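Example 3.2
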Amino acid sequence: MQDVTKLVGLLWALFSMTLAFFLLRKNWMNKWVSASILLISVLLGFSIFSPMLPFQFQEILIPNGGGKGPGFLLPLIGLLVIVVSSSALGRTFCGYSCPVGALQELMYRIPVPKLRWGKKWILLVFRWAFLAAMIVSGLLFGVSFLYYLGGSSFFRLDPFEWPFYVFAFLAVLSLFYYRPFCRIFCPVGALMSLSALIRGARFRRNENCTDCGKCERACPVDEAGPDDLKLECYACNRCREACPFDALDYTFGKGR
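Structure, written as tokens:
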């Protein structure tokens, strides 16, 4: 049964990230459409605990975490397929398909005062340090750092495990800070940011751009500038919604 839920999660991930790409490409994405996709992803996280790639990722690292059968292979196959797909489609998996990211995205939309993380490089240092520690602890000691962050306990609705409250705190924190789990702790997010270097689909400025800066002020990850690499772009569409000149396309090829 567990393998079935992982397969359902993988199929939803592929469908929803492709759907999000199509809607962004056609400029048909809006707040209500995106909220619907996000809500389905969150409900799937609670109902069948899938697709939870940040936590299934740990099964690949821990020798006894997933065995050598389908339970081990599905997370590995899913990770490879989604990372490769994201190289072309952009980070639509992180943006719309993953229930952990979807929950944080919906929480951040609640209208309360927002806070910024500050310098981007500080987050990058924490992210890669945590990823290195997670890989070493998993391979050498069989320790799952991600377990202690509580995502699995939270989506199983298991308040009797203390990590449940760690993730609950991160969820509340996402009211004020944009995607704290995704931007610091998620190993898949780190891999996705590297896949963005391939420069597949992303938001690019067209000839209508007047450099008014509204897209840059709307971007919660400070990646909307013409010289930004867009490594942390979650395709949230806020930049395009803020643009008064229809100067942003979600596309391949040239553009700032």
